[in-house]
Amino acid sequence: MSFAAISYNIRPDTEAEIAEIFSATGFRRTGSPVVYDAAGNEVGLIPATGLFIGDDSMVRIIQYLGELDDVARHMSRQTTVKFAEQRLSPFLAEPRDTQTEQGFLRYFANSLMTDCGGSSTPDRLARITVLRFRHPDAGPADLALESRVPLWAGPGHPDGPALLAERWYRNGESVVRLWQHTGELRDVARLVARDAAAFAREAVLLDALSGGGLRPTEQSYPDIVGRLAMRCLSQLAMHDSPAGEILPARV
Which of 226, 178, 171, 220 is nearest to 199 (CA)? Predict the structure, then answer.
């Protein structure tokens, strides 16, 4: 499975209004994760999505199988997506046309964050967390991304803490880090902090991305990770069921 990240620049102090749009009462979920082409052929799958917000930015994460162009075209034709985009429009910093297929595809392409790399374990659905940084200079940020935490997906309880995937995305000054993990975020952070080699690289990374503002210790690291995490407005994952529905994530 692959990931993609889409960025939105939003107006200040609009988080509450945007959260209502994507709440359980404000947004009707799409019933099927299957992606079809114009001829009705099955060409892909969207097993998980997530929407995250923080300050003046919102990020949509899409986990998918197939081609991203097919995924974008599939989304452009969804009535529920069009309705949410229409309601979202007044709260965006820059207006855009998403009500036509061509307009949506143009916005999708323009808002796609640059994939800076990462790694993952064998395909598995789990909770997604997005951590956000600001960095005005892309050069040092790219260098910092060479330092990555290792993935833990070893033996143990399936609901216990494990980091299954990590990816980095950048759009202008905004750098986001995707973690897909089991267990609680703080427990995953404790795993990183207890690995001496990984934590040494992590401290260098946070120092670079924060311009020297973050100097984590093993004790403070879980709190720092929690502060960097964007608020999750919505997270859906495909569950085993006869209809293959997309349901609110239970991970």
Answer: 220
DSSP state of 113: P
Predicted model pTM:
0.86
The structure tokens listed for 196 are 């001496």
- Widest distance between CA atoms in the chain: 56
Residues 210-244: tens digit of each pLDDT? 888 889 999 999 999 999 999 999 888 765 443 44
Count of other CB atoms within 10 angstroms of residue 98:
22
Residue numbers of the domain that contains 67: 2-114+232-245
Instruction: Return d(Cα 159, Cα 169) in angstroms, integer.
Output: 27
Q: What are phi and psi of 164, to 5 degrees?
A: -100, -30
Paired with 28 in beta bridges are none
83 and 127 in a single domain? The answer is no
